[in-house]
């Protein structure tokens, strides 16, 4: 059997050094045995990638449900990697930075892209200020919003930056308008082997519309939710809970999650859109959700995290940025929010905690 994933691109480099399969396996075993915490997971994944199995087990982040392990085919991961290369015009000898944990798909795919397309991949600890620690310049970097916020002064070292794993706040979005780096927001999930759609955040090409990667198509179901068609990387279509405006078979505008939608007085509101408007006024972690209301059915509420050591937001100013139908009818405070390992607020758990506290 021809194990395509064992055919390392001859230009592949790890921290500037070239390796064949045998030597890379040795390095991977050493990393698993005696590497730093983040290097151990890199060593484990490289060994999984280079073994005879045609699949890899990957953990989901748990942002929209209970974290689970899913099985991905290596050939589909290779196809996904090449699609990213085509879309962003990243060929062999691309210099890239891996500063994401490889416990999850985003970090794993940075390794796969480098192995498949012959990149020079620089690996650093997945810290908030990872980009600032070295003087290297990079053609391509993937980060989460939290890392980007701590790397603004160092973004001149990056040509193309993709941001995933969470929403880009209005404050961060505004700051990114001032950098020369080409910055993109990505749409995807573990099941789609990272991003399958991208939109430009800054520059003349900035847009609120997500554009599909090669060989990806979109539909909208009768709920108004996104359906993803990508036979090269998916065994079957993925029906999401993301409400969208379908612009074309290869583009859409994201509105919010249908499982988060609030029906207040017969008017549907998407918490994510309200949160985007409030983000410039509330620096603390917060969410918009709803609670039962006898007259409206549901009423919009705001819950934010504050252990008492931070100044309270100016809600009067913040809410003036909202329409009458978007303004929270009540505000709650929690001393500590539950977060996923990738830094996303666990909305469902926050809401359950609220119900428990109200009993």
Question: How are the SSEs ordered, and which strands pair?
Answer:
Layout lengths: L12 E2 L2 E2 L2 H14 L2 H13 L5 E5 L9 E5 H15 L6 E4 L6 H13 L2 E4 L14 E6 L1 H5 L8 E6 L6 H7 L5 E8 L4 E7 L9 E3 L4 E4 L4 E5 L8 E11 L2 E7 L4 E3 L2 E3 L1 H8 L7 E8 L3 E9 L9 H5 L10 E5 L12 H12 L1
Parallel strand pairs: 1-6, 5-6, 5-7, 7-8, 8-9, 19-20
Antiparallel strand pairs: 1-2, 3-4, 9-10, 10-11, 11-15, 12-13, 13-14, 14-15, 16-17, 18-19
Helix pairs in contact: 1-2, 3-4
Gap between N and C termini: 61 Å
Low-confidence blocks of residues:
none
Total beta strand runs? 20
Average pLDDT taken over every residue: 92
Rg is 21 Å
Helix content: 25-40%
Biggest sheet overview: 13 strands, mixed
Strand content: 25-35%
Written overview of the protein:
The protein is of the alpha/beta class. It has two domains: 4-214, Rossmann fold, CATH 3.40.50; 261-358, ANL, C-terminal domain (GMP Synthetase, Chain A, domain 3, 2-Layer Sandwich), CATH 3.30.300.30. Helix content is 26%, strand content 30%. The strands form four sheets. Strands 2-1-6-5-7-8-9-10-11-15-14-13-12 form a 13-stranded mixed beta sheet. Strands 18-19-20 form a three-stranded mixed beta sheet, sandwiched between helices. A hairpin with a 2-residue loop joins strand 16 and strand 17 (267-269). Helix 1 (21-34) packs antiparallel against helix 2 (37-49) and helix 3 (74-88) crosses helix 4.
């Amino acid at each position: 059997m021809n194990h395509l994933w064992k055919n390392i691109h001859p230009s592949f480099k790890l921290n500037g050094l070239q390796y064949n399969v045998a030597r890379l396996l040795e390095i991977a075993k050493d990393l698993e045995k005696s590497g730093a915490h983040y290097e151990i997971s890199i060593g484990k994944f490289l060994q999984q990638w280079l073994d005879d199995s045609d699949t890899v087990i990957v953990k989901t982040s748990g942002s929209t449900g209970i974290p689970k392990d899913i099985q991905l085919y290596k050939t589909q991961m290779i196809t996904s990697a090449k699609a990213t290369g085509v879309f962003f015009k990243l060929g062999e000898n691309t210099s890239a930075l891996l500063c994401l944990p490889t416990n999850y798909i985003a970090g794993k795919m940075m390794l796969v892209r480098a192995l498949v397309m012959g990149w020079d991949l620089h690996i650093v600890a997945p810290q908030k200020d990872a980009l600032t620690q070295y003087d290297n310049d990079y053609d391509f970097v993937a980060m989460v919003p939290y890392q980007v916020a701590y790397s603004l002064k160092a973004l001149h070292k990056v040509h193309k930056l993709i941001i995933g794993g969470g929403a880009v706040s209005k404050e961060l979005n505004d700051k990114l308008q001032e950098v020369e780096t080409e910055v993109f927001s990505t749409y995807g999930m573990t099941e789609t082997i990272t991003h399958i759609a991208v939109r430009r955040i800054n520059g003349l090409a900035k847009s609120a519309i997500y554009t599909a990667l090669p060989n990806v198509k979109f539909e909208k179901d009768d709920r108004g939710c996104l359906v993803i068609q990508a036979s090269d990387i998916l065994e079957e279509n993925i029906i999401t809970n993301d409400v969208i405006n379908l612009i074309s078979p290869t583009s859409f505008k994201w509105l919010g999650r249908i499982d988060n939608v609030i029906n207040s007085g017969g008017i549907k509101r998407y918490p994510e859109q309200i949160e985007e408007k409030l983000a410039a006024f509330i620096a603390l972690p917060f969410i918009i959700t709803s609670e039962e209301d006898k007259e409206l059915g549901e009423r919009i509420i705001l819950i934010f995290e504050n252990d008492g050591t931070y100044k309270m937001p100016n809600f009067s100013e913040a809410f003036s940025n909202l329409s009458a139908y978007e303004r929270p009818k009540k505000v709650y405070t929690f001393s500590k929010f539950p977060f996923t390992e990738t830094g996303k607020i666990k909305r469902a758990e926050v809401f359950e905690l609220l119900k428990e506290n109200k009993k």
